[in-house]
Amino acid sequence: MKYNFDSCTSRIGTNSIKWKFADENKLNDFAPLWIADMDFDVLPEITEALVNRAKHPIYGYTVPSEEIYDEIISWQKRHHNIDIKKEEIIFSTGVVHSYGQMLDTFLAKDEKVIVNSPIYPPFFGTPDAFEREVVYSPMIEVEGGWKFDFEGFEKLIKEDKKIRMFNLCNPYNPLNVNWTLEELNRMMEICHRYGLYVSSDEIHSDLIMPGFDFVSALKVNKEFQDKLIVSFSPTKTFNIAGLEVSYVVIPNKEIREQFNRTAHGIGLSSINIFGYEALLAAYKNGDEWLKEATSYMYENFKFVKQYLNERMPMANLNIPEATYLGLLDLRNIDLPEDLADRLMKEAHVQFNPGQAFHADHRCLRINVACPRAQLEKGLEALRNWLTVNKYI
Ligand SMILES: Cc1ncc(COP(=O)(O)O)c(C=O)c1O
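# pyridoxal-5'-phosphate complex -> structure
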């Protein structure tokens, strides 16, 4: 391997959200396996690009260069075989920000958005903030994974004419499904038939496990893309979430202009200079880093699986098809509602609680984007806590 993922620079004292509990409590045995950023040093070219830009002492309003558009188009073609035109790209700060902007731009106050469940919290939290009602289309649990309930989804839309948008998570956080073209066509055909906007959140699209290929909503039949808005970002892929850079791709000109108008209206015609620099450096130089990071994280998932098989067989993890986030399934054990909180405070290992996603509290979301030793420390802390408290 060219890059080393076994060790990383300490984040203690950097105001990292992930490490906040350790900072506040002066812990040196903490294993944060929760919020979706990586404990890996970034690609060196990203740091170099930021330092170089920082050396110029003026940081005024900045437009994206032609090179940035070219690199985005090239990245999406090279990695996912997607054809994007320059004029279809609109820059944004975060993907969650774009989602709020979409809701505000395209839905009237009394109109609703439909999402799957369990789901990444802003899928319902952002509509709550914008006062748009959320309708849930629950996923169906099957042996070894989850599947989309097409009949249930269509029934909900058919019966409630106020549902005007579907917010899809592609690939799916936290259930880790990597949708197929057939599935995407089927869901988007339904949305097209009932005239729904489709927002496809593709922030995890570069984080695909071996044996799977990512399929963008931009690959479905063109006629189903009439109200499609796709969000991409290099932030999960390259561990630069603090730089707040992302972009949406909107094939339909009319919708794009509407979205652009609100972007200008709320002062988003220019984003953070360092975000542009990091995106460019990552897309230009990051192929090999990403390949190695993904393979390291896949080995981490296998490590967790093996650990559970050997040392905690009552727990389960289905190795994800995509994302570096998995669901640790502890439903065979009778556990308290405040499980995740107690693990953080008493065992110094932090997971996202299942309830945050509208899932069972005995399902913990685990983030494997960290050195293997950190993962092992967290699993040991979990097992010890369960043993000491006589849950296993
Ligand atoms: C599906 C999904 N969308 C969006 C985000 C956050 O994106 P941003 O930081 O660009 O708002 C995350 C972060 O974990 C995510 O998992």
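# post-check
The CA atoms of residues 137 and 152 lie 7 Å apart.
The radius of gyration is 21 Å.
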